[in-house]
Amino acid sequence: MSNEQKQSSQAQPKASAQEAEDSVGKINSSLASSLNSKLAGRASRQDLVNRFIIRDAAKSRQLFKQSDRLDSWLKQRQPKAALVERGLLRRRNSDRGNDGDGDGDGDGDSNAKVASPVSVKKRALGLGALLERRRSRNTLVGMNVIKEEAGVDASLQEAKLRLQKNMNKNKLNSFLTTRASRGSLTRRGILRDRSAEEQVRKRDNVKALLSDFVVRRPTPAKLVEKKIIAGSGAGASANKTAKVVDVPTVVEGALKGKKAVKAAAGWCHSIVLTDDNQVFTFGLDSEGRLGTAADEDDEGDDSDEDAAAGDNAVTAAAAALIGGAVASSGPQLVSSLAGTVSVVDCGDHHSAAVVDGRLFTWGQGSWGRLGLGDQSNHNAPKPVDIEQPVANVSCGAYHTLVLTTDGQVFASGWSKNGRLGIDGTEQSVCTPVRVEALDGVKVVDVKAGHGFSLALSDAGAVYSWGAGLFGALGHGDEADVSKPKQIEALKDVKVTSIAAGKTHALALADDGTVLSWGSNSNGQLGREAHDADVEEEEKKNDGDKKLRIKHNKKMSFSCTPKQVATDAIVGSDAKIIQVAAGKASAFVCDNGKAFAFGAASSGALGTGASAAAKDEQRPVAVAGDHRFVHVASGWLHTLFINDAGALLSCGLNENHRLGF
To answer: How much is the mean pLDDT over the chain?
Structure first.
């Protein structure tokens, strides 16, 4: 190499060193601060050694020194044969044949070279390689091989717990999504079908109850003798066993010899008050609407009551076995009502009575219609908590109206469409709430329809609120009204009596005229009303599926109260004293005559024509030689009371709603 090349090669390192020195002064201050921070925050060597991340050099050097001394000792130690010759070791039998000269006498060459074992240094190197390949402490902690130290960073521990929870959650989700359903396990015979077993158990219990009932039941002759059923002779009334009774027929049984003073007809049951303050009910008894059974929390030790309860249980069990509901075959006494009864009424699924100024309700409690603070069904009358004395009560389909003696109105039940007349959403109101919008109005009567309400003031004004479907509120349209509103069309009329049906209403003026409004689908308004296309929803079964089919239907209704033409049939010498609104509406005159209009096929008009008759859009005379003083209209039946106090009924006798 020439001198120039040597000088050039020596100059290059110097230049590089000079550049490095120059570049040091050019480092950014923030970068230097960051580097200092990282250097200050790094773990010390001893910390890394304690965490087994790097080896301990001091211990390694000490280990190598120990291995060197051990290796030197091994090289200097005397062979086994020399120790044996010196008597320091005992000769073994296995050594006699392996003495080195092959003669088996054990006198082999004592100076033969002994193979040295593997040096400790090599063992140490192998141990070092093993330590390098070992798993980290975190890995062993994650595998639950060793426990985690208490000094581990809390954030790392929390992250580990979250990871473990997510892993467990994923495993659980995977199990839940892939596991077989209970129905599948039942069909495969892995699980028992508890519903089928329960049904079999109930059926066996019913069979046992029926067997006991059949053994104890009285003979037909005995029932005829006690006049509980009619005999087969000439005195038997044929029309009482018919499905449809189209003329008013006297209801006897438990009412025989008693005088009825008030009656009310619901959807499928009826209620009657007699002059001796006794209340009787008959018809469908599902959900306890008849009030003749012992309630869940009633107590008593009367053996007769226990026997009656047993018979009722058998009847209910038999109905459940055949898939039907329980129905009374005649009037039954509501024995738990004691005192002076002033009012009785019933709706679609519940009943009510006013006894000594206290309100009692019973039947289906859903939506809070009973006003008892819950939505439970009650089989017997229960007192409703209202501070003021009660003057009147009216039961709708899903709500109840209460009138106190000081003219205040209370409501409970389902608040849908504003039928309760109180603020709030369409929720259940389980205790009576005062209708504050009627404050300042002296109310003398209330009536509850299917989804709307009516109130009558002492001045003859009519207020309505709730569902306005088919003009049921009488405000000239079909809009819902959430607060009581006076009917403008009746402002010039002094109304003395009101009646509410499912979606229509009637009003009786002080001059004896009748006004009607709402739905006229069966002629229940008693007059002509305009037709309109209405979308109707019909439910049909298609195998296991329930179909809802909507179609247009011509519907007749009136949104404004108008007069019913009654002069020609009533005459000038008679005056209408009461009205009733149902699918077949009716009114009673002071001369004892009764007239009805509306649905005719059920026989509820009481005119003697049913299946072959068309609906009556004009009032027609009720058949029979009776002087009627009271009328009550239900869904498909009508009740009358004559001047002798006898209760008469006509219409559809399904579920014995007619009382026979």
So the answer is: 80
